User: What shape does this take?
Amino acid sequence: MKRIFQSAYLFFIYLFLYIPILILVVYSFNTSRFSTNWQGFTLNWYRVLFTDGPLMEAFANSLIIALSSSTIATVLGTLGAFAFYRYRFLGRQIMYSFVYILMMSPDIVMGISLLLFFITLGLSVGAVTLLLAHVTFCLPFVMVTVYARISGFDRNIIDVAKDLGASELQMFRHVMLPMLMPGIIAGWLLSFTLSLDDVIVSFFTTGPSFEILPLKIYSMVRLGIKPEINALSAVMFLVSLFTVTIAHFIIAKENR
Amino acid sequence: MVRKSRFRNFAIGSPMLWIAIFVVVPYIIVVLFSFLTRDPEGIVRWEFTLANYREIISPVFLRVCKNSFILALGTTAITLLTAYPFAYILTRIDENIRRFLLLLMIIPFWTSSLIRTYALIILLKANGILNTLLLSLGLIDEPLSILYTETAVFIGLVYTLLPFMILPLYASLQKLDRSFIEAARDLGATSRHVFFHIVLPLTLPGIIAGSTMVFLPALGLFYIPDLLGGARSMLIGNFIKNQFLTTGHWPLGSAACVILTLLMFMLLLWYFISTRKAHSGGMETVR
Assistant: This one.
Protein backbone atom coordinates (compact mmCIF):
# COMPACT_ATOMS: atom_id res chain seq x y z
CA MET A 1 0.00 0.00 0.00
CA LYS A 2 2.76 2.40 1.01
CA ARG A 3 4.71 1.49 -2.12
CA ILE A 4 1.75 2.12 -4.38
CA PHE A 5 1.23 5.50 -2.77
CA GLN A 6 4.90 6.35 -3.22
CA SER A 7 4.94 5.31 -6.87
CA ALA A 8 1.79 7.30 -7.50
CA TYR A 9 3.41 10.36 -5.96
CA LEU A 10 6.47 10.08 -8.18
CA PHE A 11 4.23 9.51 -11.17
CA PHE A 12 2.20 12.67 -10.52
CA ILE A 13 5.26 14.86 -10.13
CA TYR A 14 6.67 13.58 -13.41
CA LEU A 15 3.27 14.07 -15.01
CA PHE A 16 3.26 17.68 -13.79
CA LEU A 17 6.73 18.26 -15.22
CA TYR A 18 6.23 16.56 -18.55
CA ILE A 19 2.58 17.07 -19.54
CA PRO A 20 3.06 20.68 -20.75
CA ILE A 21 6.08 19.71 -22.82
CA LEU A 22 4.32 16.69 -24.29
CA ILE A 23 1.34 18.82 -25.23
CA LEU A 24 3.68 21.31 -26.84
CA VAL A 25 5.31 18.62 -28.94
CA VAL A 26 2.00 17.01 -29.92
CA TYR A 27 0.44 20.35 -30.90
CA SER A 28 3.38 21.22 -33.11
CA PHE A 29 1.94 18.53 -35.43
CA ASN A 30 -1.68 19.74 -35.25
CA THR A 31 -3.23 20.98 -38.51
CA SER A 32 -5.41 23.59 -36.84
CA ARG A 33 -3.85 26.98 -36.41
CA PHE A 34 -5.92 28.35 -33.55
CA SER A 35 -8.10 25.72 -32.01
CA THR A 36 -7.11 23.32 -29.27
CA ASN A 37 -8.98 20.52 -31.04
CA TRP A 38 -6.94 17.94 -32.80
CA GLN A 39 -7.59 18.33 -36.52
CA GLY A 40 -5.05 16.02 -38.05
CA PHE A 41 -1.35 15.48 -38.40
CA THR A 42 0.83 17.92 -40.32
CA LEU A 43 4.49 18.78 -40.72
CA ASN A 44 3.48 22.15 -42.09
CA TRP A 45 4.64 24.16 -39.06
CA TYR A 46 8.09 22.68 -39.34
CA ARG A 47 8.12 23.64 -43.01
CA VAL A 48 7.06 27.19 -42.12
CA LEU A 49 9.77 27.23 -39.50
CA PHE A 50 12.58 26.14 -41.77
CA THR A 51 11.63 28.58 -44.52
CA ASP A 52 11.38 31.56 -42.15
CA GLY A 53 14.48 33.63 -42.98
CA PRO A 54 14.87 35.72 -39.80
CA LEU A 55 14.17 32.71 -37.58
CA MET A 56 16.75 30.60 -39.37
CA GLU A 57 19.25 33.44 -39.06
CA ALA A 58 18.61 33.65 -35.33
CA PHE A 59 18.98 29.88 -35.16
CA ALA A 60 22.35 30.05 -36.95
CA ASN A 61 23.47 32.86 -34.61
CA SER A 62 22.46 30.83 -31.56
CA LEU A 63 24.36 27.85 -32.85
CA ILE A 64 27.51 29.88 -33.57
CA ILE A 65 27.46 31.42 -30.09
CA ALA A 66 26.69 28.11 -28.36
CA LEU A 67 29.43 26.23 -30.21
CA SER A 68 32.11 28.87 -29.73
CA SER A 69 31.26 29.92 -26.17
CA SER A 70 31.07 26.34 -24.91
CA THR A 71 34.40 25.54 -26.58
CA ILE A 72 36.17 28.56 -25.06
CA ALA A 73 34.55 27.92 -21.67
CA THR A 74 35.62 24.27 -21.83
CA VAL A 75 39.26 25.15 -22.55
CA LEU A 76 39.36 27.75 -19.76
CA GLY A 77 37.32 25.62 -17.36
CA THR A 78 39.49 22.54 -17.85
CA LEU A 79 42.64 24.56 -17.23
CA GLY A 80 41.00 26.09 -14.16
CA ALA A 81 39.89 22.74 -12.73
CA PHE A 82 43.40 21.37 -13.28
CA ALA A 83 44.97 24.44 -11.66
CA PHE A 84 42.72 24.09 -8.59
CA TYR A 85 43.68 20.43 -8.29
CA ARG A 86 47.39 20.67 -8.97
CA TYR A 87 48.66 24.04 -7.77
CA ARG A 88 48.62 26.12 -4.62
CA PHE A 89 48.47 29.80 -5.48
CA LEU A 90 47.50 33.13 -4.01
CA GLY A 91 43.74 33.59 -3.84
CA ARG A 92 43.07 29.93 -4.69
CA GLN A 93 40.52 29.47 -1.91
CA ILE A 94 38.74 32.73 -2.73
CA MET A 95 38.58 31.90 -6.42
CA TYR A 96 37.32 28.42 -5.62
CA SER A 97 34.40 29.76 -3.59
CA PHE A 98 33.86 32.39 -6.25
CA VAL A 99 33.20 29.71 -8.85
CA TYR A 100 30.41 28.31 -6.70
CA ILE A 101 29.00 31.75 -5.93
CA LEU A 102 29.00 32.47 -9.64
CA MET A 103 26.79 29.44 -10.33
CA MET A 104 24.31 30.51 -7.66
CA SER A 105 24.23 34.19 -8.51
CA PRO A 106 20.99 35.37 -10.15
CA ASP A 107 21.19 35.64 -13.94
CA ILE A 108 19.79 39.13 -13.88
CA VAL A 109 22.65 40.43 -11.75
CA MET A 110 25.18 38.91 -14.14
CA GLY A 111 23.33 40.33 -17.14
CA ILE A 112 23.18 43.84 -15.68
CA SER A 113 26.79 43.81 -14.49
CA LEU A 114 28.05 42.76 -17.92
CA LEU A 115 25.83 45.34 -19.62
CA LEU A 116 27.25 48.12 -17.45
CA PHE A 117 30.77 46.77 -18.00
CA PHE A 118 30.38 46.83 -21.79
CA ILE A 119 28.83 50.29 -21.69
CA THR A 120 31.70 51.55 -19.52
CA LEU A 121 34.17 50.17 -22.05
CA GLY A 122 32.24 51.84 -24.85
CA LEU A 123 31.41 48.53 -26.55
CA SER A 124 28.05 48.31 -28.28
CA VAL A 125 26.20 45.09 -27.52
CA GLY A 126 26.19 42.44 -30.25
CA ALA A 127 27.84 39.18 -31.23
CA VAL A 128 31.15 39.82 -29.43
CA THR A 129 29.67 40.94 -26.12
CA LEU A 130 27.20 38.04 -26.25
CA LEU A 131 30.05 35.58 -26.76
CA LEU A 132 32.00 37.03 -23.82
CA ALA A 133 28.90 36.85 -21.61
CA HIS A 134 28.12 33.25 -22.55
CA VAL A 135 31.69 32.10 -21.90
CA THR A 136 31.44 33.74 -18.48
CA PHE A 137 28.31 31.95 -17.31
CA CYS A 138 29.37 28.59 -18.80
CA LEU A 139 32.83 28.68 -17.24
CA PRO A 140 31.92 27.68 -13.64
CA PHE A 141 29.80 24.75 -14.85
CA VAL A 142 32.72 23.31 -16.83
CA MET A 143 35.09 23.86 -13.91
CA VAL A 144 32.81 22.05 -11.50
CA THR A 145 32.10 19.16 -13.90
CA VAL A 146 35.78 18.62 -14.71
CA TYR A 147 36.85 19.15 -11.10
CA ALA A 148 34.39 16.46 -9.96
CA ARG A 149 36.26 13.99 -12.16
CA ILE A 150 39.79 15.19 -11.44
CA SER A 151 39.34 15.13 -7.66
CA GLY A 152 38.80 11.37 -7.79
CA PHE A 153 42.22 10.80 -9.35
CA ASP A 154 45.12 9.12 -7.63
CA ARG A 155 47.74 11.82 -7.11
CA ASN A 156 50.52 9.26 -7.64
CA ILE A 157 49.77 9.33 -11.36
CA ILE A 158 51.16 12.86 -11.52
CA ASP A 159 54.26 11.87 -9.55
CA VAL A 160 54.90 8.92 -11.86
CA ALA A 161 54.67 11.16 -14.91
CA LYS A 162 56.99 13.70 -13.28
CA ASP A 163 59.49 11.01 -12.23
CA LEU A 164 59.60 9.79 -15.79
CA GLY A 165 60.70 13.28 -16.79
CA ALA A 166 57.48 14.82 -18.12
CA SER A 167 57.17 18.61 -17.94
CA GLU A 168 53.99 20.12 -16.49
CA LEU A 169 52.64 20.66 -19.99
CA GLN A 170 53.50 17.13 -21.12
CA MET A 171 51.98 15.65 -17.99
CA PHE A 172 48.78 17.68 -18.55
CA ARG A 173 48.65 16.92 -22.27
CA HIS A 174 49.45 13.19 -22.21
CA VAL A 175 48.28 12.03 -18.79
CA MET A 176 45.58 14.35 -17.50
CA LEU A 177 43.77 15.28 -20.68
CA PRO A 178 42.97 11.72 -21.83
CA MET A 179 41.79 10.77 -18.35
CA LEU A 180 39.69 13.91 -18.04
CA MET A 181 38.09 13.55 -21.46
CA PRO A 182 34.67 12.26 -20.26
CA GLY A 183 34.38 15.16 -17.81
CA ILE A 184 35.47 17.62 -20.48
CA ILE A 185 32.91 16.34 -22.99
CA ALA A 186 30.15 16.41 -20.38
CA GLY A 187 31.14 19.97 -19.43
CA TRP A 188 31.09 21.02 -23.06
CA LEU A 189 27.64 19.51 -23.64
CA LEU A 190 26.19 21.19 -20.57
CA SER A 191 27.70 24.54 -21.61
CA PHE A 192 26.29 24.13 -25.08
CA THR A 193 22.82 23.56 -23.62
CA LEU A 194 23.14 26.47 -21.20
CA SER A 195 24.26 28.81 -23.95
CA LEU A 196 21.60 27.72 -26.40
CA ASP A 197 18.81 28.21 -23.85
CA ASP A 198 19.88 31.35 -22.01
CA VAL A 199 17.40 34.22 -21.99
CA ILE A 200 18.21 36.61 -19.15
CA VAL A 201 21.93 37.24 -19.58
CA SER A 202 21.54 37.39 -23.37
CA PHE A 203 18.68 39.83 -23.02
CA PHE A 204 21.10 42.45 -21.68
CA THR A 205 24.21 41.55 -23.63
CA THR A 206 23.09 41.50 -27.24
CA GLY A 207 21.23 43.97 -29.42
CA PRO A 208 18.99 43.98 -32.49
CA SER A 209 22.08 43.63 -34.70
CA PHE A 210 22.58 40.07 -33.48
CA GLU A 211 19.40 38.18 -32.69
CA ILE A 212 19.38 34.75 -31.12
CA LEU A 213 16.67 32.14 -30.87
CA PRO A 214 15.55 32.40 -27.21
CA LEU A 215 15.17 36.18 -27.46
CA LYS A 216 13.33 35.79 -30.76
CA ILE A 217 10.97 33.28 -29.11
CA TYR A 218 10.54 35.62 -26.16
CA SER A 219 9.46 38.54 -28.34
CA MET A 220 7.21 36.32 -30.49
CA VAL A 221 5.45 34.75 -27.50
CA ARG A 222 4.69 38.19 -26.08
CA LEU A 223 2.65 38.81 -29.20
CA GLY A 224 0.77 35.53 -28.91
CA ILE A 225 0.92 31.85 -29.62
CA LYS A 226 1.78 30.60 -33.07
CA PRO A 227 2.09 26.99 -34.19
CA GLU A 228 5.55 27.75 -35.62
CA ILE A 229 6.71 28.55 -32.08
CA ASN A 230 5.36 25.18 -30.96
CA ALA A 231 7.50 23.53 -33.64
CA LEU A 232 10.53 25.64 -32.76
CA SER A 233 10.17 24.97 -29.04
CA ALA A 234 9.78 21.25 -29.72
CA VAL A 235 13.02 21.29 -31.71
CA MET A 236 14.84 23.16 -28.94
CA PHE A 237 13.51 20.78 -26.31
CA LEU A 238 14.75 17.81 -28.32
CA VAL A 239 18.21 19.39 -28.63
CA SER A 240 18.49 19.80 -24.83
CA LEU A 241 17.03 16.34 -24.30
CA PHE A 242 19.73 14.92 -26.54
CA THR A 243 22.75 16.81 -25.16
CA VAL A 244 21.75 16.43 -21.51
CA THR A 245 21.09 12.69 -21.88
CA ILE A 246 24.52 12.13 -23.41
CA ALA A 247 26.21 14.26 -20.73
CA HIS A 248 24.30 12.37 -18.04
CA PHE A 249 25.40 8.98 -19.31
CA ILE A 250 29.00 10.10 -19.58
CA ILE A 251 28.98 11.35 -15.98
CA ALA A 252 27.05 8.33 -14.67
CA LYS A 253 29.45 5.91 -16.38
CA GLU A 254 32.42 7.57 -14.67
CA ASN A 255 30.86 7.33 -11.26
CA ARG A 256 30.07 3.65 -11.53
CA MET B 1 57.57 21.08 -4.90
CA VAL B 2 56.05 22.10 -8.18
CA ARG B 3 58.41 24.23 -10.22
CA LYS B 4 56.76 27.35 -11.51
CA SER B 5 56.58 26.38 -15.17
CA ARG B 6 55.18 28.59 -17.88
CA PHE B 7 52.30 26.13 -18.25
CA ARG B 8 51.48 26.46 -14.56
CA ASN B 9 51.12 30.22 -14.90
CA PHE B 10 48.98 29.79 -17.98
CA ALA B 11 46.69 27.19 -16.36
CA ILE B 12 46.14 29.37 -13.31
CA GLY B 13 46.22 32.72 -15.07
CA SER B 14 43.81 32.35 -17.98
CA PRO B 15 40.65 31.20 -16.16
CA MET B 16 41.32 33.40 -13.13
CA LEU B 17 41.93 36.43 -15.33
CA TRP B 18 38.69 35.73 -17.18
CA ILE B 19 36.74 35.63 -13.93
CA ALA B 20 38.48 38.77 -12.69
CA ILE B 21 37.71 40.71 -15.88
CA PHE B 22 34.21 39.50 -16.64
CA VAL B 23 32.84 38.87 -13.16
CA VAL B 24 34.73 40.83 -10.52
CA VAL B 25 35.20 44.08 -12.47
CA PRO B 26 31.56 44.17 -13.71
CA TYR B 27 30.28 43.60 -10.15
CA ILE B 28 32.45 46.46 -8.92
CA ILE B 29 30.96 48.66 -11.64
CA VAL B 30 27.43 47.75 -10.50
CA VAL B 31 28.27 48.67 -6.92
CA LEU B 32 29.81 51.92 -8.17
CA PHE B 33 26.75 52.77 -10.27
CA SER B 34 24.45 52.15 -7.33
CA PHE B 35 26.02 55.20 -5.60
CA LEU B 36 25.84 57.53 -8.59
CA THR B 37 23.41 60.38 -9.16
CA ARG B 38 20.85 60.50 -11.92
CA ASP B 39 19.84 64.03 -12.83
CA PRO B 40 16.28 64.95 -13.92
CA GLU B 41 17.19 64.62 -17.61
CA GLY B 42 18.04 60.99 -16.95
CA ILE B 43 21.79 61.37 -17.36
CA VAL B 44 23.99 59.53 -14.88
CA ARG B 45 26.48 61.86 -13.19
CA TRP B 46 29.66 61.04 -11.28
CA GLU B 47 28.39 62.29 -7.97
CA PHE B 48 28.28 60.13 -4.88
CA THR B 49 24.84 59.68 -3.35
CA LEU B 50 22.85 57.34 -1.12
CA ALA B 51 19.61 58.44 -2.78
CA ASN B 52 19.20 55.17 -4.70
CA TYR B 53 19.28 53.10 -1.55
CA ARG B 54 16.93 55.58 0.09
CA GLU B 55 14.56 55.14 -2.84
CA ILE B 56 14.72 51.38 -2.43
CA ILE B 57 13.18 51.65 1.02
CA SER B 58 10.45 53.91 -0.39
CA PRO B 59 6.85 52.62 -0.41
CA VAL B 60 6.72 52.10 -4.19
CA PHE B 61 9.68 49.81 -4.29
CA LEU B 62 8.73 48.09 -1.06
CA ARG B 63 5.37 47.18 -2.56
CA VAL B 64 7.12 45.56 -5.51
CA CYS B 65 9.48 43.85 -3.11
CA LYS B 66 6.75 42.61 -0.84
CA ASN B 67 4.80 41.15 -3.74
CA SER B 68 7.88 39.54 -5.22
CA PHE B 69 9.06 38.21 -1.85
CA ILE B 70 5.69 36.65 -1.08
CA LEU B 71 5.68 34.96 -4.49
CA ALA B 72 9.26 33.75 -4.06
CA LEU B 73 8.68 32.51 -0.51
CA GLY B 74 5.48 30.77 -1.59
CA THR B 75 7.30 29.13 -4.47
CA THR B 76 10.11 28.02 -2.16
CA ALA B 77 7.67 26.61 0.39
CA ILE B 78 5.55 24.70 -2.14
CA THR B 79 8.54 23.29 -4.01
CA LEU B 80 10.22 22.28 -0.73
CA LEU B 81 7.12 20.52 0.58
CA THR B 82 6.57 18.61 -2.67
CA ALA B 83 10.24 17.96 -3.40
CA TYR B 84 11.29 16.59 -0.01
CA PRO B 85 9.08 13.48 -0.02
CA PHE B 86 9.78 13.09 -3.73
CA ALA B 87 13.55 13.11 -3.25
CA TYR B 88 13.22 10.79 -0.26
CA ILE B 89 11.18 8.22 -2.22
CA LEU B 90 13.66 8.50 -5.07
CA THR B 91 16.58 7.50 -2.81
CA ARG B 92 14.73 4.34 -1.75
CA ILE B 93 14.06 3.08 -5.27
CA ASP B 94 15.86 0.24 -7.02
CA GLU B 95 19.05 1.55 -8.56
CA ASN B 96 18.36 0.73 -12.20
CA ILE B 97 15.00 2.47 -12.21
CA ARG B 98 16.41 5.30 -10.12
CA ARG B 99 19.10 6.07 -12.67
CA PHE B 100 16.42 6.51 -15.31
CA LEU B 101 14.14 8.56 -13.04
CA LEU B 102 17.05 10.80 -12.14
CA LEU B 103 17.67 11.49 -15.81
CA LEU B 104 13.98 12.37 -16.18
CA MET B 105 14.53 15.01 -13.49
CA ILE B 106 17.81 16.29 -14.92
CA ILE B 107 16.26 16.93 -18.36
CA PRO B 108 13.79 19.62 -17.21
CA PHE B 109 16.54 21.02 -14.95
CA TRP B 110 18.56 21.85 -18.05
CA THR B 111 15.75 22.54 -20.53
CA SER B 112 15.14 26.18 -21.32
CA SER B 113 12.68 27.55 -18.77
CA LEU B 114 11.42 29.93 -21.46
CA ILE B 115 10.22 26.97 -23.49
CA ARG B 116 8.74 25.32 -20.43
CA THR B 117 6.95 28.56 -19.58
CA TYR B 118 5.64 28.74 -23.13
CA ALA B 119 4.36 25.17 -22.82
CA LEU B 120 2.40 26.27 -19.75
CA ILE B 121 0.65 28.99 -21.75
CA ILE B 122 -0.77 26.39 -24.12
CA LEU B 123 -1.98 24.43 -21.14
CA LEU B 124 -3.49 27.31 -19.19
CA LYS B 125 -5.06 29.64 -21.74
CA ALA B 126 -8.84 30.08 -21.83
CA ASN B 127 -9.35 27.75 -24.80
CA GLY B 128 -6.34 25.69 -23.76
CA ILE B 129 -6.04 22.04 -22.87
CA LEU B 130 -6.80 22.36 -19.18
CA ASN B 131 -10.07 24.22 -19.71
CA THR B 132 -11.15 22.00 -22.58
CA LEU B 133 -10.52 18.96 -20.41
CA LEU B 134 -12.29 20.32 -17.34
CA LEU B 135 -15.27 21.51 -19.40
CA SER B 136 -15.69 18.18 -21.16
CA LEU B 137 -15.49 16.35 -17.84
CA GLY B 138 -18.21 18.66 -16.58
CA LEU B 139 -16.10 19.77 -13.64
CA ILE B 140 -16.53 23.43 -14.55
CA ASP B 141 -19.26 25.29 -16.43
CA GLU B 142 -17.20 28.07 -17.91
CA PRO B 143 -13.49 28.34 -18.69
CA LEU B 144 -11.26 29.25 -15.77
CA SER B 145 -9.21 32.33 -16.42
CA ILE B 146 -5.87 31.40 -14.93
CA LEU B 147 -3.57 32.82 -17.56
CA TYR B 148 -2.54 36.46 -17.05
CA THR B 149 -3.21 36.30 -13.33
CA GLU B 150 -0.90 36.11 -10.35
CA THR B 151 -1.90 32.45 -9.97
CA ALA B 152 -0.43 31.73 -13.39
CA VAL B 153 2.84 33.41 -12.37
CA PHE B 154 2.90 31.30 -9.23
CA ILE B 155 2.22 28.08 -11.17
CA GLY B 156 4.90 29.13 -13.66
CA LEU B 157 7.52 29.69 -10.98
CA VAL B 158 6.73 26.40 -9.24
CA TYR B 159 6.73 24.53 -12.53
CA THR B 160 10.02 25.99 -13.71
CA LEU B 161 11.89 25.78 -10.41
CA LEU B 162 10.75 22.44 -8.96
CA PRO B 163 13.71 20.48 -10.42
CA PHE B 164 16.08 23.02 -8.81
CA MET B 165 14.69 22.04 -5.41
CA ILE B 166 14.54 18.30 -6.06
CA LEU B 167 18.11 17.74 -7.26
CA PRO B 168 20.00 19.33 -4.29
CA LEU B 169 17.60 17.62 -1.85
CA TYR B 170 18.15 14.30 -3.57
CA ALA B 171 21.93 14.78 -3.39
CA SER B 172 21.85 15.47 0.34
CA LEU B 173 19.37 12.67 1.16
CA GLN B 174 21.53 10.32 -0.89
CA LYS B 175 24.56 11.16 1.27
CA LEU B 176 22.63 10.59 4.50
CA ASP B 177 24.26 7.84 6.54
CA ARG B 178 21.54 5.26 7.21
CA SER B 179 23.34 3.85 10.25
CA PHE B 180 22.34 6.99 12.18
CA ILE B 181 18.69 6.19 11.54
CA GLU B 182 19.13 2.53 12.46
CA ALA B 183 20.98 3.45 15.63
CA ALA B 184 18.22 5.83 16.64
CA ARG B 185 15.57 3.21 15.95
CA ASP B 186 17.47 0.64 18.01
CA LEU B 187 17.49 3.13 20.85
CA GLY B 188 13.72 3.34 20.57
CA ALA B 189 13.20 6.59 18.66
CA THR B 190 9.84 7.02 16.92
CA SER B 191 9.62 7.86 13.22
CA ARG B 192 8.81 11.43 14.11
CA HIS B 193 11.84 11.67 16.33
CA VAL B 194 14.08 10.18 13.70
CA PHE B 195 12.84 12.65 11.13
CA PHE B 196 13.01 15.81 13.21
CA HIS B 197 16.16 15.04 15.17
CA ILE B 198 18.27 13.20 12.61
CA VAL B 199 17.10 13.33 9.00
CA LEU B 200 16.07 16.98 8.98
CA PRO B 201 19.21 18.44 10.64
CA LEU B 202 21.50 16.32 8.49
CA THR B 203 19.78 17.30 5.26
CA LEU B 204 19.49 20.98 6.21
CA PRO B 205 22.37 21.93 3.85
CA GLY B 206 20.41 20.36 0.96
CA ILE B 207 17.27 22.20 2.02
CA ILE B 208 19.11 25.53 2.09
CA ALA B 209 20.89 24.84 -1.21
CA GLY B 210 17.60 23.95 -2.90
CA SER B 211 15.82 26.92 -1.36
CA THR B 212 18.57 29.26 -2.56
CA MET B 213 18.36 27.84 -6.07
CA VAL B 214 14.59 28.39 -6.07
CA PHE B 215 14.25 31.59 -4.08
CA LEU B 216 16.80 33.74 -5.95
CA PRO B 217 15.58 32.91 -9.49
CA ALA B 218 11.99 33.32 -8.26
CA LEU B 219 12.86 36.97 -7.57
CA GLY B 220 14.61 37.47 -10.87
CA LEU B 221 12.96 35.45 -13.67
CA PHE B 222 11.35 38.46 -15.32
CA TYR B 223 10.03 36.68 -18.38
CA ILE B 224 7.66 34.49 -16.39
CA PRO B 225 5.35 37.35 -15.31
CA ASP B 226 5.91 38.98 -18.71
CA LEU B 227 4.48 35.92 -20.43
CA LEU B 228 2.09 34.45 -17.86
CA GLY B 229 0.97 37.31 -15.69
CA GLY B 230 -0.93 40.53 -15.87
CA ALA B 231 0.86 43.82 -15.46
CA ARG B 232 0.46 43.87 -11.69
CA SER B 233 2.41 40.78 -10.81
CA MET B 234 5.87 42.23 -10.93
CA LEU B 235 9.04 40.59 -9.71
CA ILE B 236 12.18 42.38 -8.55
CA GLY B 237 13.62 41.10 -11.83
CA ASN B 238 11.00 43.08 -13.79
CA PHE B 239 11.74 46.15 -11.69
CA ILE B 240 15.46 45.92 -12.43
CA LYS B 241 14.85 45.26 -16.12
CA ASN B 242 12.54 48.28 -16.34
CA GLN B 243 15.13 50.56 -14.73
CA PHE B 244 17.53 49.66 -17.50
CA LEU B 245 15.19 49.42 -20.45
CA THR B 246 12.30 51.81 -19.97
CA THR B 247 12.86 54.21 -17.09
CA GLY B 248 16.57 54.55 -17.72
CA HIS B 249 17.33 54.84 -14.01
CA TRP B 250 20.54 52.79 -14.04
CA PRO B 251 21.74 53.71 -10.53
CA LEU B 252 18.45 52.60 -8.99
CA GLY B 253 18.52 49.34 -10.96
CA SER B 254 22.12 48.81 -9.86
CA ALA B 255 21.19 49.36 -6.23
CA ALA B 256 18.48 46.69 -6.55
CA CYS B 257 21.11 44.33 -8.03
CA VAL B 258 23.37 44.99 -5.06
CA ILE B 259 20.53 44.15 -2.65
CA LEU B 260 19.87 40.92 -4.55
CA THR B 261 23.57 40.01 -4.37
CA LEU B 262 23.69 40.71 -0.63
CA LEU B 263 20.67 38.44 -0.21
CA MET B 264 22.53 35.71 -2.07
CA PHE B 265 25.58 36.09 0.16
CA MET B 266 23.40 35.79 3.26
CA LEU B 267 21.83 32.59 1.95
CA LEU B 268 25.22 31.14 1.02
CA LEU B 269 26.61 32.02 4.43
CA TRP B 270 23.68 30.21 6.04
CA TYR B 271 24.44 27.24 3.79
CA PHE B 272 28.08 27.08 4.88
CA ILE B 273 27.19 27.36 8.56
CA SER B 274 24.58 24.62 8.23
CA THR B 275 27.05 22.34 6.41
CA ARG B 276 29.49 22.72 9.29
CA LYS B 277 26.74 21.95 11.79
CA ALA B 278 25.49 18.94 9.85
CA HIS B 279 29.00 17.51 9.93
CA SER B 280 29.75 18.10 13.59
CA GLY B 281 26.32 18.55 15.16
CA GLY B 282 24.89 15.53 13.40
CA MET B 283 27.08 13.28 15.47
CA GLU B 284 26.14 15.02 18.67
CA THR B 285 22.45 14.53 17.93
CA VAL B 286 22.99 10.80 17.79
CA ARG B 287 25.27 10.77 20.79
User: Anything to note?
Assistant: Chain B touches chain A through 83 residues (CB under 8 Å).
